[in-house]
Design a protein that fits this description.
By secondary structure, the protein is an alpha/beta fold. About 55% of the residues lie in helices and about 10% in strands. The chain folds into two domains: about 1-145, Zincin-like (2-Layer Sandwich), CATH 3.30.2010; about 155-260, no CATH class. The chain is built from eleven helices and six strands. A four-stranded mixed sheet has the order 1-4-6-5. The longest helix is centred in the C-terminal third of the chain and has 28 residues, at about 225-255.
Length: about 260
Protein backbone atom coordinates (compact mmCIF):
# COMPACT_ATOMS: atom_id res chain seq x y z
CA UNK A 1 0.00 0.00 0.00
CA UNK A 2 1.23 3.50 -0.85
CA UNK A 3 0.73 6.07 1.92
CA UNK A 4 0.34 9.67 0.75
CA UNK A 5 0.68 12.19 3.59
CA UNK A 6 1.22 15.34 1.52
CA UNK A 7 -1.97 17.10 2.61
CA UNK A 8 -1.87 16.20 6.29
CA UNK A 9 1.84 17.07 6.43
CA UNK A 10 1.11 20.47 4.90
CA UNK A 11 -1.52 21.03 7.58
CA UNK A 12 0.86 19.95 10.35
CA UNK A 13 3.46 22.37 8.96
CA UNK A 14 0.98 25.25 9.24
CA UNK A 15 0.45 25.65 5.50
CA UNK A 16 -2.77 26.83 3.85
CA UNK A 17 -4.28 23.64 2.43
CA UNK A 18 -6.97 25.41 0.41
CA UNK A 19 -4.53 25.01 -2.50
CA UNK A 20 -5.57 21.34 -2.53
CA UNK A 21 -9.32 22.04 -2.55
CA UNK A 22 -9.78 21.30 -6.26
CA UNK A 23 -8.18 17.85 -6.07
CA UNK A 24 -10.32 14.86 -7.03
CA UNK A 25 -10.41 13.56 -3.47
CA UNK A 26 -12.60 16.52 -2.49
CA UNK A 27 -15.11 15.89 -5.29
CA UNK A 28 -18.15 13.67 -4.85
CA UNK A 29 -20.45 13.43 -7.83
CA UNK A 30 -21.37 17.06 -8.55
CA UNK A 31 -20.29 18.64 -5.25
CA UNK A 32 -17.07 19.68 -3.55
CA UNK A 33 -16.65 18.46 0.05
CA UNK A 34 -13.67 20.65 0.97
CA UNK A 35 -13.88 22.93 3.96
CA UNK A 36 -11.16 24.96 5.69
CA UNK A 37 -9.86 22.86 8.61
CA UNK A 38 -9.52 24.18 12.13
CA UNK A 39 -6.00 25.45 12.69
CA UNK A 40 -5.38 24.34 16.28
CA UNK A 41 -5.71 20.56 16.00
CA UNK A 42 -2.16 19.66 14.95
CA UNK A 43 -1.34 17.67 18.09
CA UNK A 44 -4.30 15.28 17.88
CA UNK A 45 -4.02 15.01 14.08
CA UNK A 46 -0.36 14.04 14.42
CA UNK A 47 -1.27 11.37 16.98
CA UNK A 48 -4.00 9.93 14.75
CA UNK A 49 -1.65 9.93 11.75
CA UNK A 50 1.02 7.96 13.63
CA UNK A 51 -1.53 5.38 14.82
CA UNK A 52 -2.91 4.80 11.32
CA UNK A 53 0.52 4.40 9.76
CA UNK A 54 1.45 1.88 12.45
CA UNK A 55 -1.61 -0.23 11.64
CA UNK A 56 -1.16 0.01 7.89
CA UNK A 57 2.35 -1.37 8.19
CA UNK A 58 1.14 -4.36 10.24
CA UNK A 59 -2.31 -4.79 8.70
CA UNK A 60 -4.11 -8.10 9.16
CA UNK A 61 -7.83 -7.81 8.41
CA UNK A 62 -10.64 -8.96 10.60
CA UNK A 63 -12.34 -12.03 9.11
CA UNK A 64 -9.27 -12.86 7.03
CA UNK A 65 -10.86 -16.17 6.02
CA UNK A 66 -13.57 -14.29 4.09
CA UNK A 67 -10.92 -12.19 2.36
CA UNK A 68 -9.01 -15.33 1.38
CA UNK A 69 -12.12 -17.00 -0.03
CA UNK A 70 -13.46 -14.03 -2.01
CA UNK A 71 -10.14 -12.54 -3.13
CA UNK A 72 -7.44 -15.18 -3.57
CA UNK A 73 -4.64 -12.68 -4.20
CA UNK A 74 -5.81 -9.79 -2.04
CA UNK A 75 -2.40 -9.01 -0.54
CA UNK A 76 -0.99 -8.27 -4.00
CA UNK A 77 -4.16 -6.42 -4.97
CA UNK A 78 -3.52 -3.96 -2.14
CA UNK A 79 0.02 -3.12 -3.24
CA UNK A 80 -1.11 -0.51 -5.76
CA UNK A 81 -3.71 1.14 -3.53
CA UNK A 82 -3.06 4.67 -2.28
CA UNK A 83 -4.00 5.64 1.27
CA UNK A 84 -4.44 9.43 1.37
CA UNK A 85 -4.20 10.93 4.87
CA UNK A 86 -5.89 14.32 4.64
CA UNK A 87 -7.81 17.03 6.44
CA UNK A 88 -10.42 19.36 5.00
CA UNK A 89 -13.34 17.03 4.24
CA UNK A 90 -16.82 17.93 5.41
CA UNK A 91 -18.51 15.54 7.82
CA UNK A 92 -19.37 12.67 7.65
CA UNK A 93 -16.49 11.90 5.27
CA UNK A 94 -14.06 10.37 7.76
CA UNK A 95 -13.22 7.42 5.49
CA UNK A 96 -14.15 6.65 1.90
CA UNK A 97 -12.79 5.13 -1.28
CA UNK A 98 -12.68 6.43 -4.83
CA UNK A 99 -10.87 5.93 -8.12
CA UNK A 100 -8.65 8.53 -9.78
CA UNK A 101 -8.62 9.37 -13.49
CA UNK A 102 -5.99 6.70 -14.10
CA UNK A 103 -8.15 3.99 -12.53
CA UNK A 104 -6.05 3.69 -9.37
CA UNK A 105 -7.99 3.08 -6.17
CA UNK A 106 -7.60 5.53 -3.30
CA UNK A 107 -8.67 5.16 0.30
CA UNK A 108 -9.10 8.57 1.94
CA UNK A 109 -8.97 9.11 5.70
CA UNK A 110 -9.76 12.60 7.01
CA UNK A 111 -7.97 12.82 10.33
CA UNK A 112 -9.89 15.82 11.64
CA UNK A 113 -13.12 13.90 11.08
CA UNK A 114 -11.58 11.14 13.20
CA UNK A 115 -11.20 13.53 16.15
CA UNK A 116 -14.77 12.83 17.28
CA UNK A 117 -13.80 9.24 18.09
CA UNK A 118 -10.87 10.16 20.36
CA UNK A 119 -11.67 9.20 23.95
CA UNK A 120 -14.68 7.12 22.88
CA UNK A 121 -12.91 4.29 21.08
CA UNK A 122 -9.23 3.42 20.97
CA UNK A 123 -7.42 4.71 17.90
CA UNK A 124 -5.91 1.25 17.56
CA UNK A 125 -9.31 -0.44 17.22
CA UNK A 126 -10.67 2.33 15.03
CA UNK A 127 -7.72 2.10 12.65
CA UNK A 128 -8.02 -1.67 12.38
CA UNK A 129 -11.76 -1.51 11.82
CA UNK A 130 -11.76 1.23 9.20
CA UNK A 131 -8.85 -0.31 7.33
CA UNK A 132 -10.74 -3.62 7.20
CA UNK A 133 -13.94 -1.92 6.08
CA UNK A 134 -12.52 0.50 3.51
CA UNK A 135 -9.96 -1.87 2.01
CA UNK A 136 -12.72 -4.42 1.48
CA UNK A 137 -14.59 -1.75 -0.49
CA UNK A 138 -11.48 -1.30 -2.62
CA UNK A 139 -11.27 -5.01 -3.35
CA UNK A 140 -14.97 -5.14 -4.26
CA UNK A 141 -14.38 -2.20 -6.60
CA UNK A 142 -11.48 -4.00 -8.24
CA UNK A 143 -13.63 -7.10 -8.78
CA UNK A 144 -16.81 -5.29 -9.84
CA UNK A 145 -15.32 -2.35 -11.69
CA UNK A 146 -18.65 -0.60 -12.32
CA UNK A 147 -20.06 -0.78 -8.79
CA UNK A 148 -18.81 2.64 -7.69
CA UNK A 149 -20.24 4.24 -10.83
CA UNK A 150 -23.57 2.51 -10.18
CA UNK A 151 -23.61 3.87 -6.61
CA UNK A 152 -23.13 7.44 -7.78
CA UNK A 153 -24.63 7.63 -11.25
CA UNK A 154 -26.79 4.54 -11.80
CA UNK A 155 -30.57 4.52 -11.89
CA UNK A 156 -32.41 4.31 -8.58
CA UNK A 157 -32.55 0.51 -8.31
CA UNK A 158 -28.93 0.13 -9.44
CA UNK A 159 -27.89 2.53 -6.68
CA UNK A 160 -29.80 0.57 -4.06
CA UNK A 161 -28.36 -2.73 -5.28
CA UNK A 162 -24.79 -1.43 -5.39
CA UNK A 163 -24.94 0.22 -1.97
CA UNK A 164 -26.58 -2.78 -0.29
CA UNK A 165 -24.05 -5.22 -1.77
CA UNK A 166 -20.95 -3.07 -1.26
CA UNK A 167 -21.81 -1.94 2.26
CA UNK A 168 -23.31 -5.27 3.27
CA UNK A 169 -20.08 -7.15 2.61
CA UNK A 170 -17.82 -4.42 4.03
CA UNK A 171 -19.87 -4.20 7.23
CA UNK A 172 -19.96 -7.98 7.52
CA UNK A 173 -16.17 -8.33 7.65
CA UNK A 174 -15.68 -5.36 9.98
CA UNK A 175 -18.71 -5.52 12.28
CA UNK A 176 -17.76 -4.65 15.85
CA UNK A 177 -14.18 -5.78 15.11
CA UNK A 178 -15.34 -9.38 15.56
CA UNK A 179 -14.90 -12.58 13.65
CA UNK A 180 -18.15 -13.58 11.98
CA UNK A 181 -18.51 -16.71 14.12
CA UNK A 182 -18.22 -14.77 17.39
CA UNK A 183 -21.03 -12.28 16.68
CA UNK A 184 -24.41 -12.95 18.30
CA UNK A 185 -26.33 -12.18 15.12
CA UNK A 186 -29.69 -13.03 16.68
CA UNK A 187 -29.39 -9.88 18.79
CA UNK A 188 -29.68 -7.86 15.56
CA UNK A 189 -33.01 -9.41 14.53
CA UNK A 190 -34.97 -6.25 15.38
CA UNK A 191 -32.50 -4.18 13.36
CA UNK A 192 -32.93 -6.58 10.44
CA UNK A 193 -36.72 -6.42 10.55
CA UNK A 194 -36.64 -2.63 10.70
CA UNK A 195 -34.15 -2.51 7.83
CA UNK A 196 -35.97 -4.88 5.49
CA UNK A 197 -39.25 -3.06 6.10
CA UNK A 198 -37.60 0.19 5.04
CA UNK A 199 -35.94 -1.53 2.09
CA UNK A 200 -39.34 -2.78 0.90
CA UNK A 201 -40.64 0.79 0.96
CA UNK A 202 -37.53 2.04 -0.80
CA UNK A 203 -37.85 -0.52 -3.59
CA UNK A 204 -41.46 0.53 -4.21
CA UNK A 205 -40.78 4.29 -4.19
CA UNK A 206 -41.32 6.11 -7.49
CA UNK A 207 -41.17 9.77 -6.46
CA UNK A 208 -37.74 11.19 -7.44
CA UNK A 209 -37.41 13.38 -4.34
CA UNK A 210 -38.33 10.53 -2.02
CA UNK A 211 -35.97 8.22 -3.89
CA UNK A 212 -33.14 10.68 -3.29
CA UNK A 213 -33.87 10.63 0.44
CA UNK A 214 -33.97 6.83 0.51
CA UNK A 215 -30.57 6.70 -1.21
CA UNK A 216 -29.11 9.08 1.36
CA UNK A 217 -30.53 7.17 4.33
CA UNK A 218 -29.31 3.87 2.86
CA UNK A 219 -25.76 4.72 3.89
CA UNK A 220 -25.82 7.85 6.08
CA UNK A 221 -27.06 8.58 9.57
CA UNK A 222 -26.84 6.62 12.80
CA UNK A 223 -25.09 3.27 12.39
CA UNK A 224 -28.07 0.96 12.86
CA UNK A 225 -30.38 3.27 10.88
CA UNK A 226 -28.40 2.82 7.65
CA UNK A 227 -30.99 0.42 6.35
CA UNK A 228 -29.18 -0.79 3.22
CA UNK A 229 -25.97 -1.48 5.15
CA UNK A 230 -27.80 -3.35 7.89
CA UNK A 231 -30.09 -5.19 5.49
CA UNK A 232 -27.12 -6.39 3.43
CA UNK A 233 -24.90 -7.27 6.37
CA UNK A 234 -27.46 -9.22 8.37
CA UNK A 235 -28.82 -11.01 5.29
CA UNK A 236 -25.28 -12.17 4.49
CA UNK A 237 -24.75 -13.26 8.10
CA UNK A 238 -27.95 -15.31 7.97
CA UNK A 239 -26.90 -16.92 4.70
CA UNK A 240 -23.48 -17.70 6.19
CA UNK A 241 -25.19 -19.40 9.13
CA UNK A 242 -27.11 -21.59 6.69
CA UNK A 243 -24.46 -22.29 4.06
CA UNK A 244 -21.10 -21.31 5.50
CA UNK A 245 -18.30 -19.56 3.66
CA UNK A 246 -19.19 -21.29 0.39
CA UNK A 247 -22.56 -19.52 0.45
CA UNK A 248 -20.87 -16.13 0.89
CA UNK A 249 -18.67 -16.92 -2.11
CA UNK A 250 -21.72 -17.93 -4.15
CA UNK A 251 -23.59 -14.72 -3.28
CA UNK A 252 -20.54 -12.60 -4.01
CA UNK A 253 -20.02 -14.23 -7.40
CA UNK A 254 -23.66 -13.61 -8.32
CA UNK A 255 -22.91 -9.89 -8.22
CA UNK A 256 -24.76 -6.85 -6.99
CA UNK A 257 -27.58 -6.58 -9.52
CA UNK A 258 -30.82 -7.56 -7.79
CA UNK A 259 -29.09 -7.85 -4.42
CA UNK A 260 -31.32 -5.40 -2.52
CA UNK A 261 -34.41 -7.45 -3.31
CA UNK A 262 -32.65 -10.68 -2.27
CA UNK A 263 -32.18 -9.25 1.20
CA UNK A 264 -35.88 -8.90 1.90
Amino acid sequence: MIINTEIVDAYLNGEDISKYSSLFIYKQADRNIFQEPEKDKAEIVSKIKDEIIHHVNDFVPCNKRIWDILFKDWQNDLDNIVLDLVVGCKEPNDAFVLTDLNGRHHMVFDLLCWEKYVGKISLSKLSQNLLTHELFHVLIGKYYTDIEESEQFGNYINKLDAITFNEGFAHLVSYNQQEIDSVEWEKLEDVYIQSINKMKLALMETNPQSQEQYIYEANFGNYYDKYACMCGMIYLAKEWQLGGYAKLKELFDQGYHGFARKCI
